[in-house]
Amino acid sequence: MPKLDLDTIPQTNATGYPPEYAGAVEGRWYRRLGSASGLNEFGVSHVTLRPGAWSSQRHWHEGEDEFVVMLSGEAVLVDDEGEHVMRAGDCAAFPRGEANGHVLQNRGDADCVFVAVGRPSASDCHYPDIDMHLFEGQGFRRKDGSGFD
Amino acid sequence: MPKLDLDTIPQTNATGYPPEYAGAVEGRWYRRLGSASGLNEFGVSHVTLRPGAWSSQRHWHEGEDEFVVMLSGEAVLVDDEGEHVMRAGDCAAFPRGEANGHVLQNRGDADCVFVAVGRPSASDCHYPDIDMHLFEGQGFRRKDGSGFD
């Protein structure tokens, strides 16, 4: 049925990041609402960040738009322009190809929740703060192209 | 900048519905966040329903996925399966081609606010309750194909 029962949708904190960069997202618990409900034009993630958790490593996608709306709690959006507090109802948009790395960080002592919209990564993704790059079709590698091991 | 200042984005209650069906959405005030922020893979509308207002006439799209997340207040989601109260944090998904007409109705005495995601209509859209149909490339007409006038 169209109204979603979130409790019936599996929640995971899985990540494809290599171990040295995975700690930041260990407390990021998400549900894939789009695929669970039959949407295939865009993905929708329902994300809870535990205290200390980040939404991702700071990044920007060459080929995928992203949109975020906060539902509860508080996070800090960090991008090239500075830090911006995000609270329930606040929205942020990240057009594809705009070279402004972004991340939401939960710096408080309570969970925060947001919904993120965007297609799965199918293009290069840039990580300005760390020695990692998502190469189209090759997954995560160091910026020089060598693998993590 | 990625974080959106909603107050700077124009708000409108415009509709393409013919006058006999436009009354239901007169109290639907929305901002097009996606186009205002440079997104073009999907649209994002930030919608306030005044008391009595509907999100649309009850409808379903042949070719466009839709997703809704409530931000504040309360609305009733009406679809073929019945009525479902939607409150802050509740989500609903409407896969393209699924013949289950849906609408959010504000039956309370306070505003409600939600975000809706989906591409602009480029396919036929069905309105099970009224004598209207969106014909691909032709706009709104009566179900027999005749125009409104």
From TrEMBL, chains A, B:
GO MF annotation list: metal ion binding
Gene3D superfamilies the UniProt entry points to: Jelly Rolls
InterPro entries listed in its UniProt record: Cupin_2, GPI/OXD, RmlC-like_jellyroll, RmlC_Cupin_sf
Keywords in alphabetical order: Metal-binding
Entry superkingdom: Bacteria
All residue ranges annotated as the Cupin type-2 domain in the record: 46-117
Name of the protein described by the UniProt record: Cupin domain-containing protein
Species the sequence originates in: Stakelama tenebrarum
